[in-house]
Amino acid sequence: MSETSAIVPESALLSEVPVLRIVPPGRWWILPFGELWEYRELVYFLVWRDIKVRYKQTAVGAAWAVLQPLLTMAVFSLFFGRLAHIPSEGLPYAVFYYTALLPWMYFAASLQNATVTIVENQRLITKVYFPRLALPLSAVLSGLVDFGISFLMLLVIMVYYGIRPGITMLLLPAFLLLAVLTALGVGLWLAALNAIYRDVRYVLPFLVQFWLFASPIAYPTSLVPEKWRWLYGLNPLAGVIEGFRWSLTGHGDPPSRLILISSATVLLILLSGIAYFQKMETTIADVV
Amino acid sequence: MTDSVISVQGISKRYRVGERERYLALRDVIARAMAAPFRKRQSREESILWALRDVSFEIKEGEVVGLIGRNGAGKSTLLKVLARITKPSQGWAEVRGRVGSLLEVGTGFHPELTGRENVFLSGAVLGMKKVEIRKKFDEIVAFAEVERFLDTPLKHYSSGMQMRLAFAVAAHLEPEILLVDEVLAVGDTEFQKKCLGKMSEVSQGGRTILFVSHQMSQIRRLCERAIWIDHGSVKMNADALGVISAYETIVARQVLEAPSKNGSVSRDVAFMGWELLVEDGQSKHVLDHFGPVSFRILIRLPKPIPKGLYNILLVDDQGRIMWHANFELSSMEAGTFECRHRLPTLPLKPGAYRWKAGVYDGHRWTDSWWAVPELVIGTKPITNTADEFQGTLNLPCETEIRELEKASKPAP
To answer: Does A24 touch chain B (CB under 8 A)?
Structure first.
């Protein structure tokens, strides 16, 4: 406490009331984390809404969260594994694919949700204020429930194949965080782009398909020539997926270099995504 | 300036309107770039529309201010700027306190969710905290009268029920400042009354309200002050009754000057206008005193009427007839006539009333017309404004209370 604070100026008394200054959009953007924190209950309710609606609309409900990766795993095991004999680093094919599909499915679903979130919530956007970042954020967070359900399935598979996760599993939350941030970063870009160019959502399936094969899901990273690994790591999912596989099964060496590169990319995508999203945000209520 | 809770300084909002589509398709952008990769993108012919232009005003704590003006005048844009939905292009505004905006009924509602779930969702979207919603939940449900359907998905609700639930949530918002856009215009009259009642309750609780409406009767009931927005600028900012009567006079003049859509030529009788007979400088369509009232109605008869009737009705904003009279017409030539009427008093409660005039030519009612503009009664309300729904008359009443007999004290 400094001496000057002994006398409370009138303005300090008034400042108990939040004062809001409404000004034209500036050229600089600030990281809006403080405001997002203020609106955390809204984020919670948006996530809650997404989940409720999703499970009410699909007859299969939660089972879908398990069936999707499970069926994909079966197809991959059959074609890439049994028929194409792609190496699986000594892991059973089921475990090898499922550990990769777990973050992948989460990522792909989050992108789908995030891309359309601005357009689908345009009535909200034009009628009430809240930090618009809450929309892609909640789109990405609501996918975590499905993730949780399919994660339980993974435990079943691992027990079946007798794979005991080691101490490395403690690092899983870190990789999950990396997955969430990747989905958020890319999701922010796509949400903003789709708000401006309405056909981005139609491009999305191609992007997702392309990304699937550019990530170490159907094959291990070891298939990529050593000297190109760093380039491969620029795909943030490469780090995420190898991280998942390694931490869940404890097989092989920690993919530290890959994860480092991926983390850096994620940070870049995320920050640029926030910047781009906020640039779009200033005009969005006038457009949607 | 320190006691202003809303302070708006030179706010302008610019929109670009041009051939540009509302939104672009990536496909088109790419196609354009492929077709002419080296040509710099031409600045297309874009015209600029100023939705708001240099708007400034202050609102003090606890004031209830109405925003009026024609469609497209910029009222809603102004609310959107204050609600932070869109940013101003120039100028700034300062708002002190928690702001709640109510620009739509049912913001945040989702048809797949139940009534109960939607109360929470909509409440959160409108800025309520979870504990707050939980605390007021029963009150909200009771206000909306939907107790029995709480666990039914909203899509099975009737539109009236949805509306009631939506408004109930909104009405229980407790921000210090409330921005309201014409949301009361929907719904049945009974519920509207309930909402208006709730709103005046809210405003008496010291809350600051900025309120857009096209229904002058609402503004008159709720607001002390009104701001008239015209072509994006503040045209008038004064006490509500004054602003409304000025606004209505202008609107009425425009209606009168506009060529009659009804094609009065084909009519047998033409109604030309009405006005109060008042001294120069006073409003010809606003009555603000309790004493005798003189007014005239101008009609034109294209054909002579040997024997007939002429009638006038005064109708309130809910269609109830306040007064009706027939007058005989005999051996009227074709021409323009002035009908002068004098009433000893017209003690109606403040509000807008409409004249309806008609002529009977001896065989049939030739025509009847709703007179524009409305008659606005702007006398000071004598009865409590909160009792606005009871009674029709606004009569000064002398009251004396005497005790006739002492009540026997109850035994201790």
So the answer is: yes
| A39-45: long-range contacts, CB 8 A cutoff, minimum separation 24 | A39/A130, A39/A131, A39/A134, A41/B124, A41/B129, A41/B130, A42/A130, A42/A134, A42/B124, A42/B125, A43/A134, A43/A137, A43/A138, A43/A141, A44/B124, A44/B130, A45/B120, A45/B121, A45/B124, A45/B125, A45/B130
Span B31-53, pLDDT tens digits: 777 776 555 554 455 577 888 99
Per-residue model confidence as pLDDT tens digits over A197-243: 888 888 999 999 999 999 999 888 888 888 888 888 899 999 999 99
- Alpha carbon distance A84, A87 (integer Å): 9
| CA proximity to B203, closest of B228, B240, B234, B236 | B240
For chain B, how many structural domains are there in total? 1
Evaluate whether B250 touches B257 at the Cβ level (below 8 Å): no
Q: For the purposes of burial, counting CB atoms within 10 Å of the CB of B403, is it exposed (0-12), middle (13-18) or buried (19 or more)?
A: exposed
Whether A270 has a pLDDT exceeding 90, the answer reads yes
CB B129 to CB A57 under 8 A?
A: no
Asked if residue B80 belongs to a domain, the reply is no
Interface test with A, best of B11, B12, B24, B26 (most A CBs within 10 A): B26
Q: Are strands B46-60 and B4-18 parallel, antiparallel or unpaired?
A: antiparallel
Q: For residue B407, tell me if it sits in a domain.
A: no
| Unique residue bearing structure tokens 């809350």 | B207
User: Could you tell me how many residues make up chain A?
Assistant: 288
User: From the candidates B112, B129, B132, which should be mutated to test the interface with A, based on the most A CB atoms within 10 A?
Assistant: B112
Within a domain: residue B124? Answer: no
- The pair of three-digit structure tokens given for residue A113, joined into one six-digit string: 């949700």
Give the contacts of B185 (CB within 8 A, at least 6 positions apart).
B213, B214, B215
**pLDDT tens digit sequence for B82-110:** 988 888 888 989 998 888 888 877 788 88
Count of Cβ atoms closer than 10 Å to residue B15 Cβ = 14
Which residue range forms the structural domain that includes residue B357? 262-387
The count of CB pairs under 8 A between chains A and B is 120
| CATH of residue B324 | 2.70.50.60
A28: exposed, middle or buried (C-beta count within 10 Å: 0-12, 13-18, 19+)?
Answer: exposed
> Is residue B344 in a domain?
yes
Residue B28's identity, in one-letter code, is D
